[in-house]
Amino acid sequence: MDVSLTVILILLTCVSSFYGFNQSQFLDRWMFTPYEIHHRGQWDRFVLSGFIHKDYVHLLFNMFTFYFFGRVVEQFLAFKFGSAVGGVLFVLFYLSAIVISDIPTYLKHKENLYYRALGASGGTAAMVFSSIIILPLADICLFGILCLPGFILGVLFLIYSYTKGKTGGDNINHDAHLYGAILGIVFILVLSPSSGLDFIDQILSYRPF
């Protein structure tokens, strides 16, 4: 039985996160710490920090989201480019989303000795918004209660992430969510410009009732 790349990435993230829960030294070395990156050249933290999480709830939320939306993007790329090329693109996209989504945070906090972050939120946000471009009318449900078409929830999420990124105060890296989301949109439109036209056609055909 074939195991999807989405599942493999989830398993790798779970193993490293589980290990980090009980190994503070390991967690400290993999943490996204802009000051250490800037002053000690520990650039690998950009990638490593995406494979560790704060706790089980943080891990479950990110991996649950990644599982459902990552599969959509993985299957789309395999259909467009073949399983081999599509698989390579998928993995590179996920890893680059983790890195690129953290660059604004790095630039903002590279002289802040105390700033630390971790988690795959940037990569996960990129997958969510790539899938929204592919299937904009598919419902996304928040906590199984509020269900909205992806393009509507996506707009609300972008506004929320931008606003919270400006105000801060809740120890969540909203900038990573925002820039990961933007990267996800750009990625699909660059690789498959026709997806943009399909997106518009689907939006124009949308009827709420």
Whole-number tally of structural domains: 1
Oligomer: single chain
Helices, by number, come to 11
Approximately what portion of the residues adopt beta-strand conformation?
Answer: under 5%
Mean pLDDT: 90
Largest sheet: 2 strands, antiparallel
Total E-strand runs: 2
Assign the CATH superfamily: Rhomboid-like
Major beta sheet, strand line-up: 1-2
How far apart the termini lie comes to 41 Å
Please give a structural write-up.
- With 209 residues, this protein is mainly alpha-helical.
- It has one domain: Rhomboid-like fold.
- The protein is 70% helix and 4% strand.
- Strand 1 (139-142) and strand 2 (146-149) form a beta hairpin.
- The chain is globular, with a radius of gyration of 17 Å.
- It starts with a helix and ends in a 5-residue tail after the last helix.
Key terms:
Rhomboid-like fold; 209 residues; two-stranded antiparallel ribbon; single chain; 70% helix; globular; mainly alpha; 11 helices
Topology of this protein?
Layout: H1 5-21, H2 24-30, H3 34-40, H4 45-48, H5 56-81, H6 83-100, H7 103-109, H8 121-134, E1 139-142, E2 146-149, H9 150-167, H10 174-191, H11 194-204
Antiparallel strand pairs: 1-2
Offer a quick outline of the entry.
This protein is mainly alpha-helical and 209 residues long. It is built from eleven helices and two strands; from the N terminus they run H-H-H-H-H-H-H-H-E-E-H-H-H. Strands 1-2 form a two-stranded antiparallel sheet.
